[in-house]
Write a structure and sequence with these properties.
Strand content: 15-25%
Mean pLDDT: 76
Oligomer: single chain
Distance between the termini: 149 Å
Helix content: 25-40%
Number of helices: 6
Radius of gyration: 47 Å
Structural class: alpha+beta
Low-confidence stretches: 1-7, 45-62, 72-92
Number of strands: 10
Length: 251
């Protein structure tokens, strides 16, 4: 009986050992095949972490929007709170110098009594309350605004002044033809034909110096005078003083 039990117990151990060996063999064969699959799955999980700086989720991309909108609102509110300062002139060329008959608008910020439209007088001045006569001829709009502001400082605390040129009515003359800078020029004081040519930069190489024309409107008619440039140089003949509206044509 003991021999039979011993044989049975030994057979059981051998059977268990055989199953264990079979399991080990299966694991040794299947493990190498499973490693690449696990590696691919791990790569899929890790990859988004490497690209975290470039999210594709719409909800993540839109998070900064409220901060940007808040900044825009703050900037707009700041702009609204700042009072706009008045302009110091509206003429296309800020370097334009005022002359007699020019029509101006003088504005003093928050002071209706000192905001008015004026015309530069023939003597080159304008009249303002508190300041009386203020020289304007020969100044730019910005320079006149600065002078008025300085004068009003004795009566008003930190005045803000703007000067706007509504209409240019100062005397002027016109240069046409073969000169370096044809165009319209202000007539400031006595100006001769030779001085006008100098202001226009002189004659070009294609000009006809002996056939210069001075056209002047007289009592509704045009008075045309022929001028020889060389006669002006030699004897002064034809060097007329210009009047407002005169046109010099250099053919």
């Amino acid at each position: 009986m003991r021999d039979n039990k011993t044989v049975s117990g030994g057979g059981m151990v051998k059977a268990i050992w055989a199953v264990a060996c079979s399991v080990l063999v299966v694991l040794n064969i299947a493990a190498p095949l499973a490693v690449p699959v696990f590696a691919q799955e791990a790569a899929r999980i890790v990859a988004p972490a490497r690209n975290a700086a470039m999210p594709t989720d719409n909800s993540i991309q839109t998070r900064p929007a409220p901060l940007t909108s808040l900044r825009a609102i703050m900037d707009n509110s700041a702009k609204i709170r700042r009072p706009a300062l008045p302009s110091t002139g509206s003429q296309p060329d800020p370097s334009y110098r005022l002359g007699p008959e020019d029509q101006l608008r003088i504005s003093v910020w928050d002071n209706k009594e000192l905001t008015l439209e004026l015309v530069v007088r023939p003597d080159g001045k304008i009249s303002m309350p508190l300041l009386q006569d203020v020289p304007a001829e020969g100044l730019t709009a910005a320079q006149l605004a600065a002078d008025i502001q300085e004068g009003l400082s004795a009566y008003i605390m930190t005045p803000e002044v703007s000067v706007i040129v509504l209409q240019v009515n100062a005397p002027k003359f016109y240069m046409i033809g073969y000169v370096t800078r044809p165009g319209t020029y202000p007539l400031r004081g006595d100006t001769s034909v030779l001085q006008a040519l100098a202001l226009a930069g002189g004659l070009t190489q294609f000009a006809s110096p002996r056939s210069i024309k001075l056209i002047r409107a007289t009592r509704g008619k045009q008075d045309v005078r022929t001028i020889n440039y060389y006669d002006i140089i030699d004897s002064g003949e034809g060097n007329y003083l210009l009047k407002s509206g005169d046109t010099i044509v250099v053919p």
